[in-house]
């Protein structure tokens, strides 16, 4: 695993690939805080004619909402470049499961999931509608439920767990899907519980594992991107901050991988003998693409 620290190493790295797939949280930004020189680094790649894709496990926003975020943060992005675990989950229900029209999905998560399901013509309920303090007294089963989908939910509650449990307990025929299983969420200058941590209480209560987890490292999104854009994996690089999602995702797909140290992974963890997931390369930050090549803004 080589650390990129010089202009020559960076130029040789960038010139070796045509396509760059970016994780978002922990690579480009933390919340709405764009890391230094990210805009300039992204512009450098686009100026060199590189194909850019964004592949996020964050299911709280739809692709449209992510496009708005990119615009607000002044980072060039196009809708067909954006892939999220909410999108992957909706596509899985539509194209793989062939989810029946007379069934609906109960969501524990945020608007990204309901909006992507709606875009695929799949009926859903719950999500942000169930936010706030609610009584569990009136929770009953609903025979129309065909699946429960869980993702990062910053407004999680016992009420939501009870509803999801009710729809899945003693109903093995109903699908239990996670948009992603990230253990932590890099935000507010620290780490908070992630989507995987949010799902654990329900998994424990049900004594049942999810039927599918659609985000990275699952290959669903990568297969969709490679096929849709006829990308050559050997000329493609996945850039991420989490080893068990981003880097594993790229390694499994035969891509080169670059780990950045601005998110959840620390250099000592990355380099430790106990770490089973190795990246091809690593770098302190994606913004170093600009600072090393001399196209960074002055501090
Ligand atoms: O808990 C989560 O959902 C993840 O921490 C978060 O969404 C990761 O997003 P990504 O780093 O894949 O953009
Ligand atoms: Mg990340």
From TrEMBL:
Q: Where is the active site?
A: 23 (nucleophile), 25 (nucleophile)
Cofactor info, note text: Divalent metal ions. Mg(2+) is the most effective.
Q: Binding positions for Mg(2+)?
A: 23, 25, 241
* InterPro entries according to UniProt: HAD-like_sf (IPR036412), HAD-SF_hydro_IIA (IPR006357), HAD_sf (IPR023214), PGP_euk (IPR006349)
**In which residues is substrate bound?**
216
Query: Annotated Gene Ontology MF terms?
Result: alkaline phosphatase activity; metal ion binding; phosphoglycolate phosphatase activity
Per the database entry, which stretches of residues form a coiled coil? none
Q: What is its EC number?
A: 3.1.3.41
Provide the cofactor list for this protein. Answer: Mg(2+)
Recorded catalytic activity of this chain's protein: 4-nitrophenyl phosphate + H2O = 4-nitrophenol + phosphate + H(+)
Give the main EC class: hydrolase
Q: Which UniProt keywords apply?
A: Hydrolase, Magnesium, Metal-binding
Gene Ontology cellular component annotations, sorted alphabetically? cytoplasm
Pfam family of this protein, just one? Hydrolase_like
PANTHER family, alphabetically? 4-NITROPHENYLPHOSPHATASE-RELATED, HALOACID DEHALOGENASE-LIKE HYDROLASE DOMAIN-CONTAINING PROTEIN 2
Name of this chain's protein: 4-nitrophenylphosphatase
What species is this protein from? Umbelopsis vinacea
């Amino acid at each position: 695993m080589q650390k990129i620290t010089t202009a020559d190493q960076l130029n040789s790295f960038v010139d070796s690939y045509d396509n760059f797939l970016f994780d978002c949280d922990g690579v480009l930004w933390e919340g709405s805080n764009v890391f230094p020189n990210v805009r300039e680094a992204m512009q450098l790649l686009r100026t060199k004619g590189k194909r850019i894709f964004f592949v996020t496990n964050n299911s709280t926003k739809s692709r449209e909402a992510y496009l708005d975020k990119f615009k607000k943060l002044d980072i060039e992005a196009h809708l067909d470049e954006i892939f999220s675990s909410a999108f992957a989950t909706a596509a899985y229900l539509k194209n793989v499961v062939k989810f029946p029209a007379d069934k609906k999905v109960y969501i524990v998560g945020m608007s990204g999931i309901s909006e992507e399901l709606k875009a695929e013509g799949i009926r859903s309920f719950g999500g942000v509608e169930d936010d706030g303090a609610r009584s569990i007294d009136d929770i009953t089963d609903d025979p129309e439920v065909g699946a429960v989908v869980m993702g990062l939910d910053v407004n999680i509650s016992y009420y939501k767990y009870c509803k999801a449990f009710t729809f899945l307990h003693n109903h093995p025929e109903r699908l239990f899907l996670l948009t992603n299983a990230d253990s932590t969420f890099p935000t507010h200058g620290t780490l908070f519980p992630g989507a995987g941590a949010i799902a654990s209480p329900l998994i424990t209560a049900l004594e049942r594992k999810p039927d599918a987890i659609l985000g990275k490292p699952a290959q669903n999104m990568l297969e969709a991107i490679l096929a849709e854009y006829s990308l050559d994996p050997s000329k493609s690089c996945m850039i991420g901050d989490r080893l068990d999602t981003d880097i594993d995702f790229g390694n499994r797909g035969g891509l080169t991988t670059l780990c950045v140290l601005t998110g959840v992974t620390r250099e000592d963890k990355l380099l430790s003998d106990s770490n089973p997931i190795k990246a091809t390369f690593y770098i302190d930050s994606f913004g170093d693409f600009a600072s090393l090549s001399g196209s960074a803004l002055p501090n």
